[in-house]
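R.M. (postdoc): so does anyone remember the format we settled on? I'll just put the structure tokens first.
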């Protein structure tokens, strides 16, 4: 788990440097559209929409953009479908890709093309699900916490099983079934998450040499650059040597 969280931290820093705001906005807008389609436009009664709005605020999406997306979402979200793809990258690294798309043929063609060109193998759905476990991952600013001991007792009681700290940020990890209760507890404590999402955490990570690791990270970026891709999960172990090579 810690390896995945370390990669999450790297991605957050790298994302800030790359300033891929339009990509982030697009993904969150799609998530809001699907959330409204599923549960209606009222965030108080729609946990998925409430989480998407929190994430939109976390990347400084303007309030008017959020309101406009929700107002138009019933129509625009109607054709979006959730789909997943699984496969292996060089070095035997497993990858799990989540997409939201209005054209399944286009999406599968793009995903297959990246696998083929980059020396990977696209597998069948469900073939790698045993390698990952879905968990809630919530990022908050540590400055919002007044009493650390009291906070940890309450948040663990709500379902959090791991707390990692770095650069003034706390990353809370919980079982998928506790995701809602942890968010509710944070709301009761007056703490606004920077980001909250369900992720596929690898049960074990796999180490490869630095050059292969750099190649894999470039392939992951290729997937993430596709407009239909929402999330990319993998079991690559991010070693200190690989972190240094990325700088």
């Amino acid at each position: 788990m810690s390896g995945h969280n370390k990669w999450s931290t790297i991605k957050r820093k790298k994302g800030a440097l790359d300033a891929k705001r339009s990509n982030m906005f697009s993904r969150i807008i799609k998530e809001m559209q699907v959330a409204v389609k599923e549960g209606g436009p009222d965030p108080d009664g729609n946990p998925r929409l409430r989480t998407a709005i929190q994430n939109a605020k976390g990347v400084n999406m303007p309030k008017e953009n959020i309101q406009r997306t929700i107002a138009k979402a019933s129509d625009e979200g109607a054709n979006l479908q959730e789909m997943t793809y699984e496969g292996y990258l060089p070095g035997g690294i497993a990858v799990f890709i989540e997409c939201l798309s209005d054209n399944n043929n286009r999406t599968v063609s793009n995903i297959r093309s990246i696998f083929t060109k980059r020396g990977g193998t696209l597998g069948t759905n469900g073939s790698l699900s045993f390698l990952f476990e879905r968990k809630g991952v919530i990022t908050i600013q540590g400055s919002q916490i007044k009493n650390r001991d009291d906070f940890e007792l309450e948040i663990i009681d709500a379902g959090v099983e791991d707390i990692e700290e770095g650069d003034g940020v706390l990353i809370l990890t919980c079982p998928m079934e506790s995701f809602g209760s942890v968010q509710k507890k944070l709301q009761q404590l007056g703490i606004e998450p920077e980001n909250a999402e369900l992720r596929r955490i690898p049960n074990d990570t796999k180490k490869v040499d630095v050059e292969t690791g750099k190649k894999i990270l470039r392939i992951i970026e290729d997937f993430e650059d596709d407009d239909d891709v929402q999330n990319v999960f993998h079991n690559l172990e991010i070693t200190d040597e690989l972190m240094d090579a990325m700088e």
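R.M.: ...and that's the designed sequence above, right after the tokens. Also worth knowing: The chain has three domains: 20-76, 81-130+204-246, 132-202. Residues 12-19 have pLDDT under 50 and may be disordered.
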